[in-house]
């Protein structure tokens, strides 16, 4: 573990207001060097604002931010060559050709990656001469990722790197992020994609209403709790089943014919449930025991109501 | 998918990427040159820009020199028109083109994006200025060649011409960037084109200002385009050195434009 205060990014009690709205409300997080840290949260949770303050685009109203030990605004000149940034969208002139813009940014750096090799790697070789505005959303995203890493940074900020990508492009992006991590680059990304966070992140920080609501490795967040799911004919007497289970268990049918038992799942519990089904002439299908997913944790912590 | 290193006949795999951190920026002048070359390339590829910077000035110059559609007073027509069209060329590049281009770059987050690269803002401004100057050199060469072919006989002091052009460029750049950095991109597009047409009409570019009534004329002479066109005419047609009135007017516009742009420009 990285000792506290020595991470790639250290954010302490960060506050940012826009007029009367508070976008970030006392957020504290630490992103370890050489690790992938994922910020997860509903729309409007304050993820992008936090990242943009770390990138030096916005100033904090209160709290401290240190990026590679430096102040993102005061030490901007020293930080820019060391930090790669992929914004949520756009940022490339509509008339610029993909290869041309990537080469431009590469030319600002002293030992950049080969732009052509990077384009090839991200499947963009055929589009090297395509103007940015004529590229598909997924191609624009990949070019934006290429621009973020071409300078061989120590730290990259990726704001929703796979939103709008098809599965092939998403996997190519994931592989590149895994290689960055293997090469010792620190990665801070935001995402809505739970699979992405579970697969890539060493540490997941769940943000809501401008503050951290949970923070840990994916396995720590999903915990050891298990649950039992099965399908059977609709309308089983769940209260009778529950009376046979240990206290504190819960059972529900949603949608009809799909059953979920939340309990301390042990071999005895499994035997009790199957025995109860057998005694009632119930044939179960798709019986399975699973861990909570990150999505379950996320919805539990941030609620189910829709965000703007 | 693995092949022995250097195995003959193996399909060329994508070159491996060495992603290990190796950060560092090249010296500022190299960044500025790279950005300038990039801006020039994209600009010269843009048909609308070429129309604005080259086609319109050359057409106006040729059309009104070779026909008597306009009453240009006594004297050779091309000697009146060439300085005015040079002034128009400066306005089209430093003001109209720069306002529209920068306005859309701001709107599409390009300025912000470049702000995340090692190129500092002062470097970006330097590159934009160099780009404007390079385009103006190209415009001056083409316009002068056409004018000379039409029988133009320029007089006067080259240094005075240079100072007028530089002050004019500074004034128009200041207001172009002020517009780009404060208005929405669509508003900038409309307003920059409108200003271009209005100043073309009333700024003494091709229509002589002495056709306007006295009071109106005195007011129009305070416009930056009139000051630049009149100043260039004083030197190139009449052989004056350092025309004080136009230089003063341009200097005031330049200081005001650049100060307002520095104060109010918003990068995003």
How would you describe what is shown here?
Chain B: InterPro entries: ABC2_TM, ABC2_TM_bact-type, ABC_2_transport, Nod_factor_ABC_transporter. Chain B: It is a multi-pass membrane protein. Chain B: Keywords: Antibiotic resistance, Cell membrane, Membrane, Transmembrane, Transmembrane helix, Transport. Chain B: It is found in: Cell membrane; Membrane. Chain B: Belongs to the ABC-2 integral membrane protein family. Chain A: It holds the Pfam family ABC_tran. The complex is a heterodimer of chains A (308) and B (268). With 308 residues, chain A is α/β, with parallel strands linked by helices. Chain A has helices at residues 47-54, 76-79, 98-107, 115-121, 137-149, 167-182, 194-200, 218-222, 238-243, 267-279, 294-302; strands at residues 9-18, 21-31, 36-40, 62-67, 83-86, 155-159, 186-191, 203-208, 211-216, 226-231, 250-253, 258-262, 285-291. In chain A, strands 5-6-7-3-8-9 form a six-stranded mixed sheet, sandwiched between helices. Chain A has a four-stranded antiparallel sheet with strand order 11-12-10-13. A three-stranded antiparallel sheet of chain A has the order 2-1-4, with helices on one face. In chain A, a hairpin with a 2-residue loop joins strand 8 and strand 9 (211-216). The longest helix of chain A is centred in the middle third of the chain and has 16 residues, at 167-182. In chain A, 43% of the residues are buried. The mean pLDDT of chain A is 90. By secondary structure, chain B is mainly alpha-helical. Chain B has one domain (28-65, 74-264). In chain B, helix 2 runs antiparallel to helix 3 (77-107), helix 2 (47-66) runs parallel beside helix 5 and helix 3 (77-107) packs antiparallel against helix 7 (185-202). Residues 1-13 of chain B have low confidence and may be disordered. The chains are: A alpha/beta (308), B mainly alpha (268). The A-B interface holds A 55, 57, 77, 80-83, 85, 87, 89-96, 100-101, 104-105, 107-111, 113-114, 117-118, 120-121, 147, 149, 151-154, 179-180, 182-185 and B 14-15, 17-26, 30-31, 34-35, 38, 41-42, 45-46, 104-105, 108-110, 112-113, 115-120, 268.
């Amino acid at each position: 573990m990285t000792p506290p205060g020595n991470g790639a990014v250290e954010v302490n009690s960060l506050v940012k207001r826009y007029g009367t709205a508070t976008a970030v409300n006392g957020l504290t997080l630490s992103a370890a060097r050489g690790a992938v840290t994922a910020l997860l949260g509903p729309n409007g949770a304050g993820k992008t604002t936090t990242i943009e303050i770390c990138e030096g685009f916005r100033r904090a109203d209160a709290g401290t931010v240190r990026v590679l030990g430096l102040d993102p605004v005061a030490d901007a000149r020293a930080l820019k060559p060391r930090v790669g940034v992929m914004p949520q969208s756009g940022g490339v002139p509509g008339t610029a050709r993909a290869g041309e813009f990537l080469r431009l940014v590469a030319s600002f750096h002293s030992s950049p990656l080969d732009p052509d090799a990077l384009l090839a790697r991200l499947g963009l070789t055929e589009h090297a001469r395509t103007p940015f505005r004529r590229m598909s959303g997924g191609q624009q995203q990949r070019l934006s990722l290429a621009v973020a890493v071409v300078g061989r940074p120590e730290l990259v900020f990726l704001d929703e790197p796979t939103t709008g990508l098809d599965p092939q492009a998403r996997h190519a992006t994931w592989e590149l992020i895994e290689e960055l991590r293997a090469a010792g680059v620190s990665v801070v990304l935001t995402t809505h994609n739970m699979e992405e966070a579970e697969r890539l992140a060493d540490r997941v920080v769940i943000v809501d209403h401008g503050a951290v609501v949970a923070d840990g490795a994916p396995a720590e967040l999903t915990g050891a709790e298990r649950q039992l799911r099965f399908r059977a004919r609709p309308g089983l007497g769940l209260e009778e089943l529950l009376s046979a289970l240990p206290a504190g268990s819960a059972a529900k049918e949603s949608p009809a014919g799909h059953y979920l038992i939340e309990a301390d799942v042990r071999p005895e519990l499994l035997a009790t449930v199957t025995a109860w089904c057998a005694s009632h002439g119930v044939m179960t299908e798709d019986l399975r025991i699973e861990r909570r997913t990150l999505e379950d944790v996320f919805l539990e912590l941030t609620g189910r109501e829709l965000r703007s | 998918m693995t092949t022995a290193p250097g195995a003959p006949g193996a399909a060329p795999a994508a070159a491996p990427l060495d992603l290990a951190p190796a950060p560092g920026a090249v010296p500022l002048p190299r960044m500025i040159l790279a950005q300038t070359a990039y801006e020039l390339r994209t600009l010269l590829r843009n048909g609308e820009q070429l129309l604005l910077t080259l086609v319109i000035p050359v057409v106006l110059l040729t059309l009104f020199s070779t026909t008597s559609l306009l009453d240009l007073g006594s004297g050779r027509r091309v000697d009146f028109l060439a300085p005015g069209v040079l002034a128009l060329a400066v306005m089209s590049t430093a003001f109209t083109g720069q306002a529209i281009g920068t306005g859309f770059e701001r709107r599409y987050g390009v300025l912000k994006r470049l702000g995340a690269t090692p190129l500092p803002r002062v470097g970006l401004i330097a590159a934009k200025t160099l780009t404007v100057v390079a385009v103006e050199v190209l415009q001056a060469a083409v316009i002068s060649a056409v004018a000379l072919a039409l029988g133009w006989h320029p007089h006067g002091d080259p240094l005075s011409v240079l100072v007028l052009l530089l002050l004019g460029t500074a004034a128009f750049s200041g207001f172009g960037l002020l517009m780009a950095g404060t208005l929405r991109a669509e508003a900038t597009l409309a307003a920059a084109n409108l200003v271009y047409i209005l100043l073309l009409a009333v700024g003494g570019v091709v229509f002589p200002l002495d056709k306007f009534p006295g009071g109106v004329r005195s007011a129009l002479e305070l416009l930056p385009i009139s000051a630049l066109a009149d100043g260039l005419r004083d030197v190139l047609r009449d052989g004056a050195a350092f025309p004080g009135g136009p230089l003063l007017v341009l200097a005031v516009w330049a200081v005001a434009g650049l100060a307002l742009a520095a104060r109010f420009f918003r990068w995003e």
